[in-house]
Amino acid sequence: MEPNKKKFSFLYPFKRDGKGVEKEEAGPPNLKNFFKLFGRKFTRLLSLNLYMLVGAVPPVLMAYLFFTGEKTPSVTEPIYPALWGASQVVQTPALQPLFGTSMIQFQLPFLSLGFILMMVALALVWFFIFGYLNVGTTFVLRAMVRSEPVFMWSDFWYAIRRNRRQGLLVGALDLLILGLLVFDLVYFYSMIGSFAYDMMFFLIIALLFLYNFMRFYLYLMLVTFDLPIRKLIKNAFIFAIVGIKRNMMALLGIIAMLAINYILITLLGPLGLIVVVILPVIYFPACAAFMAAYAAWAKIDELMIKPYQTEDDDSDMMPDADAEALL
User: Fold this and answer.
1) Are 119 and 11 in contact (CB under 8 A)?
2) What is the C-alpha to C-alpha distance for residues 1 and 49, in angstroms, rounded to an integer?
3) pTM (two decimals)
4) Cα-to-chain-centroid distance, residue 285
């Protein structure tokens, strides 16, 4: 397969393909080879990050509309209606301070028909593209981790066409689970104070970590094997546990990158260097996804591919038809 040679266009960074087609030597999946591979693929990761940023457009627009749209004052204290009713019957010195405190108003978004329709439309777009973006970018990341030639534009769309149905369903389910976990985390954090709510808060944190590790494997298996969604989730759960060492190393790498960015923003942000704030957006999503893919693919290769390869089989991939009986 020859790389596409196109003249310069506005979509050039998206359609840009690799310079060659010869497969590189991957080497063992250890920390030393990770940095070598990361350095070789860094410029391609910057291009892949442009694809990933498309998925951030709907939630960013939703947040912008939520915080900058028309507001209406609202009283949020649940005791306010009872105090208001009591104030209509009798006026006492003790009642007035309570009534005045509880009627403090907050500015909440005005739920007009246009606002609701816009938020619903953006949410539907996000649900529709979320899985496809993860499928396309994961397919490209898998090629990078395997040290295969990358033709980003064609590979991205090939993966989406090949996994059209599962990409949409798994993406919607993934986004729904993430939303529920984040909602539960915020809810139980606001209720901290009793033993039961404290335990639920820490349980949700543990579930977030577990599901985050499952996501390392979910889309990699989706673009590699012909498995039903139920088995994808089951295998991802098993890999999240058996691959805990590599999962933790990837998580520590992502946290370290976040910490470095935070330190740079804290130190250089007050100097007016706005580029320090914008720079992480240019590379962080793709680099974090690369760390997760590098950690996860080695375990998938070890348990789902190599045991089923014969000595005469030169292929690096296992046939999809045999994948269902793996775990």
Assistant:
1) no
2) 24
3) 0.79
4) 8
Nearest to 136 by CA among 104, 178, 168: 168
Where are the chain's structural domains? 12-70+112-325, 74-109
pLDDT over threshold 70, residue 2: no
> How many whole angstroms separate alpha carbon 47 and alpha carbon 283?
9
Question: Is the pLDDT confidence value at 89 over 70?
Answer: no
Q: What is the pLDDT of residues 180-200, one digit of tens each?
A: 999 999 999 988 888 888 999
Separation of alpha carbons 213 and 295, rounded Å: 10
